[in-house]
Amino acid sequence: MTETIRETSLAASVSRALEACGVTAEALGGEHEARSPLTGEVLLTVPTATAEDVTEAITKAHEAFLQWREVPAPVRGNVIKRWGELLTEHKEDLAILVQAEAGKITSEALGEVQEMIDICDFAVGQSRMLYGKTMPSERPGHRLQETWHPLGVVGVISAFNFPVAVYSWNTALALVCGDSVVWKPSGITVLSALGAHALLARAIRDTGAPADIHQLVIADRHASQAIIEDPRVALVSATGSVRLGQEIAPRIAARFGRALLELGGNNAAIVAPSADLDLALRGIVFAAVGTAGQRCTTMRRLIVHESIVDELTEKLVSAYGTLRIGDPTEPSTLVGPLINEKSFNDMQRALADARAQGGTVLTGGGRVLADERPDAYYVEPAIVRMPRQSEVVQDETFAPILYVLTYSDFPEAIALQNGVPQGLSSAIFTNDQAEAEKFISAAGSDCGIANVNIGTSGAEIGGAFGGEKETGGGRESGSDSWRVYMRQATNTINYSGELPLAQGVKFL
């Protein structure tokens, strides 16, 4: 894959990948510029949807849903099975688009597409396991059961940092649950969206499913308002900032729609005195600098016992000095670019605030390759020693900044871990079983993800993904997350020939 990009121009590689995925010339050309953070160059342009176009897409998706909900769930699973096969066949093509638009190193770009393949496998199995329960009735000759039915149109709003994986979590499950999907991708990663959509459209054609069960709309915030406001959109699944959630959640609730929100993360790891520091070091570095710190699960706070903080920070600074920063198409690169200039400016502002609040930058924070690539923003990941849980540490800066805090006893560590508004991912490195158990107990981490002896990022699709507090409370991907895409009905079946009432009520 990297050889393909490096042998030709970036734009040529992207054009070839789009063609391989089945994106036609008619889908390209327009006023929206697709830029690459690798170089800052415009790769291609694409047309954008108007507000009327988005409403029309919702109409098509709703009409298709009325057919799709009648299709047996295992048959619906055939679409996702075929999509998974096509994703496997075109894994490198789609990864080229992800790398070119999101700036990921090769293994991460390929891993993102693999995540799509994995959720397809999961969803195909789930299509035969949309289980309800049978409950005993207090009335003779009666039976109680719960059934699960398709919900309706699902609106998916995705973010740039995982341009296709998180979208696929929603789409694969929504489609096997009998819903239709309207997808609004990030305006930063529209080419990846075109590639993923083209492969799904082919899977829909190959399996004879209703053509309109999946709609892609490339639209700005104004044009896409119908996804939030149209009552035919039964569920809106949105990934993004806390501010995004605060803006859309009340509007969805006002029309009694459902919202699945996956918002900010300000993730921490506790390092206890008993921890294997070499293991912790590897877990911390990947979680803190992977995707150039632009994951929702990026480790942003490190809470270290005061007895080992100097030793661990010395190891971390040394490890950061070996990181290869640069062109993510190069096999040896570990840290690619920030997505754009705004992200760079946000990082510099956060570092300035940290210094003003008593922090000491131990390493990193500066821009590199500015002369070679003036329109791209490559940075050195930063480690900042903070004296306390200060204001800057409360915020999520979408950049590779790791704040190091200390603690003296375990309750203090838990208080520091939980003492931020966000609640997505958390971790502890310890060989003390009691500490590990306490960390994942009800009185421990208040996050949706609580890991032991592994970092905060790198979740598998088998478990439910999501967090609490300002993270939004949504759950996606594995476990029983499928239920959010369906509506539940309780059925009472009377086969007695009599009509007794519950609770012993007598009437007539």
What does this structure look like?
Homotetramer. GO terms for molecular function: aldehyde dehydrogenase (NAD+) activity. Keywords: NAD, Oxidoreductase. The chain is of the alpha/beta class. It folds into 2 domains: 10-263 and 472-489, Aldehyde Dehydrogenase, Chain A, domain 1; 267-461, Aldehyde Dehydrogenase, Chain A, domain 2, CATH 3.40.309. Helices cover 38% and strands 20% of the residues. It is built from 16 helices and 23 strands. Helix 6 packs parallel to helix 7 and helix 11 (277-289) crosses helix 12. The chain is globular and about 80 Å long. The N and C termini lie far apart (77 Å).
Low-confidence runs? none
User: How many helices in DSSP terms?
Assistant: 16
Average the pLDDT over all residues and give the rounded result: 96
**Count of all domains:** 2
Distance between the termini: 77 Å
Most strands sheet: 7 strands, mixed
Question: Structural class of the secondary structure composition?
Answer: alpha/beta
What is the CATH class of the largest domain? Answer: Alpha Beta
Q: Please, what is the CATH homologous superfamily of the largest domain?
A: Aldehyde Dehydrogenase, Chain A, domain 1
Query: How much of the polypeptide forms β-strand, as a percent range?
Result: 15-25%
Shape: globular
- Give the radius of gyration: 24 Å
Biggest sheet: strand arrangement: 12-15-16-11-10-18-19
Name of the CATH architecture of the largest domain:
3-Layer(aba) Sandwich
Helix content: 25-40%
**At the third CATH level, what is the topology name of the largest domain?**
Aldehyde Dehydrogenase, Chain A, domain 1
Got a strand count? 23
